[in-house]
Design goal:
The complex is a heterodimer of chains A (about 550) and B (about 200).
Chain A (H helix, E strand, L loop, with lengths): L1 H9 L4 H13 L28 H11 L3 H5 L3 H4 L2 E2 L6 E2 L16 H4 L24 H4 L20 E3 L5 E3 L4 H6 L6 H8 L37 H4 L2 E2 L2 E2 L28 H4 L10 H4 L7 H5 L10 E6 L14 E3 L5 E4 L3 E6 L5 E5 L3 E3 L12 E2 L1 E3 L9 E15 L4 E2 L12 H4 L2 H11 L8 E11 L38 H34 L1
Parallel strand pairs in A: 7-15, 13-17
Antiparallel strand pairs in A: 1-2, 3-4, 5-6, 7-10, 8-9, 9-10, 11-15, 12-14, 15-16, 15-17
Chain B lengths: L1 E4 L3 H24 L8 H29 L10 H17 L15 H26 L14 H28 L6 H8 L1 E4 L7
Antiparallel strand pairs in B: 1-2
Helix pairs in contact in B: 1-2, 1-5, 4-5
The chains are: A alpha+beta (about 550), B mainly alpha (about 200).
């Protein structure tokens, strides 16, 4: 308790205390500094893990002999269910139920998508979510770095040497399951990153603030995860408990005003800035105005000045409508830019990639509404995949930064629903086999219990992704002018007066007219006096 | 020709410090307003706040000084006839080389128009600026003081409007103060040394 109180008092004062806090936090449960928190078990000494293991589920079976409750705990999580009941909106979300504007939907594309599921064998809609042995312990707990799920293996690694990509790729050797099993430990950035850095089908595609640069980020990329510095793991903030991880993009805590996380007093975990930094985070050396912004501005708005800052680009535009083209030789077309990023891929259409992206800003109170499978859309304009709620007058709203993913995706023009394209599979309905949108959309919609009218087109959509990672060192945070200026970052946020940005045009017109009028008046007066006095002198 | 003591030491200190602060506030204020960029918003706003508090302190002293010394009486408006005479002088007489209709003395320093202008400065423009400014500065605490329903737009417009009046006043003041004394820059010199040189014969009060 004394320790907590001391840290509480010191946090706003200096970088040194933040460093101290880092040491303290890694004590509290991170794997970033293993020597300070060694495990009480050496897994290489366990009889159960001597092997040999035929496949992943056999390893899980061995794990569960000691960790009897682990699978049951995981069965409750969205990592396992790919489903999430939003307590605020009542919507059922999760990868199983939402539509996005990347690869659109998981339904009918299971084996490809579920290479990022924490289980084994989710290859179609009939996957048994109550199976304990199908929980994949290794993908999160491997510390050897050699365990990798095969991209099309429905969550399994390859057990035989196998090429990826299928035709011209390199051979991927199977993981040594015994070595992996004996080397298990707490997850580090590489475990989480194996999926979260590569969401949307590749490095940095989806989030913009999570990509391969976060495996070992520099201080400038992420001040907390800086390998040379604080070296936080994901769990330092995303505090786990019973395999439930704090922090949710579906139901974010946009305004954590509980202050510093103290056991017994607060209960939301550390997945917010203020849970370590408090609600008056800027110290005496800072402009006192900064702490007065806390009630309106999310920390990340100033402290993540740009996303995709680690040297990787993120996908900002994905136009499915142009997919399927061939080059002049009749071969499937792929166009790469000078840095090797796909700008066109016959399987997926046109892309735009960007690095060091300035976020877009919205008022946000944590409430997000989603276009789920089968939801009716209004096709008269750009279709929002999700809607960010909040406004200036709402005390629970803050201005937040977002990556806004935009693109064009197929929809049923008669039934007015976003299509669920069946993309991946060996069957002829799969778009990546026949390149026939009609068949692909029909198969996808029907598999999710919807009718297809037979008519489709492509429609522009946008999807808001709150930016929370890649917090920059304080020297690189935004200055006042970034927003308090005529065409600053918040130029498009209306409904409130902001000094430096706003003015009454009428007052300015009248005011300057009065000032210039006075100036003109005294000039004429003075000139008149000069001329008349000269005249008098002559006469 | 004689020297007349016109401006006491405190009056001169008050005048010049106020001049410096008002110019600083106008410069930084119009930057905060977004009219141009010199210091950057943060510095401009910081300097603006610092100068504002200093000016408020100075004004407290100045009001105290005016009240306790009786100097406030120098702002009592003159009879209409004398005001009209001044207006006639500035619009006609000054071009004809007529003598100034007003004679300046230690305890009757302001001509009828100055009395009106300075009275307006002290009881209208000044308070409009500091009252709106204080409310503006207290913005983060509006909720606590039960002012949550107040419009920042309104306060900002009042504050900026008063600033335009102040700027217009400054232009007018500089022109008249610098060019209408009997000797060129006589007023300026007087405001620095405290003494003014009189030209011509002395008249009785």
């Amino acid at each position: 308790m004394v320790k907590y109180a001391r840290i509480h008092a010191k946090i706003p004062t200096s970088g040194l205390t933040i460093a101290l806090l880092g040491v303290f936090l890694s004590h509290a449960g991170s794997a970033a500094a293993p020597d300070t928190d060694p495990s009480t078990a050496d897994h290489s000494k366990f009889e159960q893990l001597k092997g040999p293991f035929a496949d992943g589920p056999s390893v899980t079976k061995a794990c569960l002999e000691c960790h009897t409750e682990a699978a049951k705990q995981l069965h409750k999580t969205s990592h396992w269910n790919w489903a999430f009941e939003n307590p605020v909106t009542g919507q059922t979300l999760g990868k199983k139920n939402v539509v996005n504007n990347f690869c659109v939907a998981t339904a009918t594309n299971w084996p490809r998508c579920t290479s990022c599921h924490i289980g084994y064998g989710w290859k179609d809609g009939s996957f048994d979510l109550s199976s304990e042995v199908n929980v994949d312990c290794l993908v999160c707990h491997d510390t050897t770095g050699s365990y990798k799920k095969f991209p099309t293996g429905a969550g399994h690694p390859n057990y035989e040497p196998k090429k990826w990509p299928p035709k011209k790729g390199k051979i991927r050797p199977p993981p040594d399951l015994v070595k992996v099993a004996q080397g298990v430990g707490k997850p580090d950035r590489d475990n989480c990153g194996a999926c979260h850095f590569y969401g949307g089908g590749g490095d940095g595609v989806k989030h913009g603030h999570l990509d391969s640069s976060m495996h070992n980020p520099s201080k400038s990329t992420d001040v907390h995860m800086d390998v040379e510095g604080l070296n936080f793991s994901c769990q330092t903030c995303h505090t786990p408990g019973g395999h439930e991880i704090a922090g949710s993009r579906y139901a974010p805590n946009a305004t954590d005003d509980q202050g510093i996380y103290v056991p017994g007093r607060t209960n939301t975990g550390r997945a917010s800035c203020s849970s370590c930094h408090g609600n008056a985070p800027h110290g005496d050396e800072s402009n006192s105005k900064l702490n007065q912004h806390v009630d309106k501005i999310a920390c990340v708005t100033c402290h993540v000045p740009e996303f995709a800052r680690g040297g990787r680009k993120t996908k900002m535009w994905w136009d499915w409508s142009t997919a399927g083209r061939k080059d002049q030789h009749g071969k499937p077309l792929v166009i790469k830019d000078s840095e090797g990023y796909d700008t066109y891929n016959f399987k997926k259409g046109d892309f735009r990639w960007e690095a060091n992206v300035v976020p877009e800003y919205r008022w946000f109170n944590g409430e997000v509404g989603y276009a789920t499978l089968g939801a009716k859309i209004d096709d008269s304009g750009v279709v929002p995949i999700n809607t960010i709620n909040g406004d200036y007058g709402d005390p629970d709203s803050r201005i937040w930064p977002f990556k806004v993913m935009r693109g064009k995706q197929p929809y049923d023009t008669q039934n007015k629903v976003l299509a669920v394209p069946h993309l991946f599979g060996k069957d002829g309905d799969a778009y990546w086999k026949s390149f026939d949108w009609g068949r692909s959309i029909k198969a996808g919609l029907e598999a999710t219990g919807q009718d297809f009218s037979g008519e489709y087109d492509f429609i522009e959509t946008e999807y808001y992704w709150p930016i929370t990672h890649m917090v920059a060192p304080k020297e690189e945070a935004l200055g006042c002018d970034s927003c308090h200026s005529r065409d600053g970052r918040l130029a498009s946020l209306k409904g409130f007066y902001m000094p430096g940005r706003d003015r009454s045009d009428w007052l300015d017109r009248i005011g300057w007219l009065a000032v210039l009028g006075t100036l003109g008046g005294v000039s004429v007066h003075g000139l008149g006096r000069l001329l008349t006095s000269r005249k008098r002198r002559k006469s | 020709m004689s020297r007349v003591f016109m401006y006491s030491r405190f009056l001169r200190l008050w005048h010049w410090l106020q001049a410096l602060l008002i110019v600083t506030l106008l410069l930084t204020g119009f930057e905060v307003h977004g009219t141009y960029r010199v210091f950057g918003f943060e510095q401009a706003a910081d300097y603006h706040r610092l100068a504002a508090w200093t000016l408020l302190g100075l004004w407290v002293l100045a009001w105290f000084w005016h009240i306790t010394t009786g100097e406030w009486k120098q702002y009592i408006p003159s009879p209409v006839g004398r005001v009209l005479a001044m207006m006639r002088y500035y619009s006609l007489g000054i071009f004809r080389g007529e003598p100034h209709p007003f004679h300046k003395e230690r305890w009757n320093r302001h001509n009828p128009l100055q009395r009106m202008a300075y009275l307006a400065l002290h009881v209208v423009i000044g308070p409009a600026i500091w009252i709106s400014g204080l409310i503006y500065i207290a913005y983060p605490y509006w909720g606590e003081y039960g002012l949550g329903g107040l419009s920042l737009t309104l306060i900002a417009v009042l504050h900026t409007g008063a600033a335009f009046l102040m700027l217009a006043f400054l232009v007018m003041h500089l022109y008249l103060a610098l060019t209408t004394s009997e000797r060129l820059f006589g007023n300026l010199k007087g405001m620095i040394t405290g003494y003014e040189e009189e030209v011509g014969e002395e008249t009785s009060p």
